[in-house]
Amino acid sequence: VWRLGPHRLVCGDALDPGVVAALMDGRQARMVFTDPPYNAINRASGGLRSFDKGVADSAPVDVGSFAEEFVRVSRGSVYVWCSDEQYTAWTLAFKSRGLTTRICAWWKTNPSPMNGTRLWLSALELCVFARKPGAYFAKHCAHPVWKGPVARVKGHPTPKPVWLMREAVLASVPETGVVLDPFMGSGTTGVASATEGRSFIGVDQELSYVELARHRIAEIRGG
User: Fold this and answer.
1) Would you tell me the crossing angle of helices 87-95 and 63-73 to the nearest 10 degrees?
2) How crowded is residue 45: how many other Cβ atoms within 10 Å of its Cβ?
């Protein structure tokens, strides 16, 4: 476990209750915000570009088990990024557990031009938002479509941009709140949380990603 002030990072299994419990110190997260593997990208390209994103997109995800765990550890809202094949399963999983849901979308302003002469660009990614009764929410009457550019992070093939994570942090986490990301990857959720003065707890099974996240969050903290 790495401790960076109010932030905790661990290399481990997000479904292991002992891992999350050790990091939470008896607290509940105000928000679970995560980007689990889509299992939709890895394939041979047959051309110049590789679609193989390795472990960043290849781990199996049991939607029911993860939804149950996310609801258990969160006292507020849950955001789960997913493929277009997954969003119905995530939505039903949260609704069946008594949460209110919305479909959110990231409208990429600089999507890849791959196959752009033959079909519409792949410029949207989907996120299922699920909210417990009484959960904190500060973006009153805002629409759930976030428009902005793709970002790059050396050492990770599929990072989300910091500006996108900050949208959710500011919307669903008060200043004293805790953000949990059980698939933190390069740690962008942690960077956004640290930037906005929220506590962060991050889990990932890949040690190289945990080390990358630690380095990025330490930079925000000034060392």
Assistant:
1) 50
2) 10
Token pair belonging to 164: 């996108």
Rounded Cα gap, residues 102 and 29, in angstroms: 20
For 127-175, the pLDDT digits (tens) are 999 999 999 999 999 999 999 999 999 999 888 999 999 999 999 999 9
Distance CA 45, CA 42 (A): 9
Instruction: Work out the number of other CB atoms within 10 angstroms of the CB of residue 151.
Output: 14
Distance separating alpha carbons of residues 74 and 71, to the nearest angstrom? 5
Q: pLDDT, tens digit, for every residue of 72-120?
A: 999 999 999 999 999 999 999 999 999 999 999 999 999 999 999 999 9
Q: Helix H segments across the chain? A: 17-24, 63-73, 87-95, 162-172, 188-195, 207-220
CB-based burial of residue 152 (10 Å sphere; 0-12 exposed, 13-18 middle, 19+ buried)?
A: exposed
Helix (H) or strand (E) holding 10: strand 7-11
Q: Would you say 12 and 205 are in contact if contact means Cβ atoms under 8 Å apart?
A: yes
Asked if residues 184 and 213 have their Cβ atoms less than 8 Å apart, the reply is: yes
Answering whether pTM is above 0.85, one says: yes
Q: How many residues appear in the chain?
A: 223
Give the single-character DSSP code of 111. -
C-alpha to C-alpha distance for 78 and 30, rounded to whole angstroms = 9
DSSP annotation of 91: H
Look at the block and give the residue holding tokens 């976030």: 146
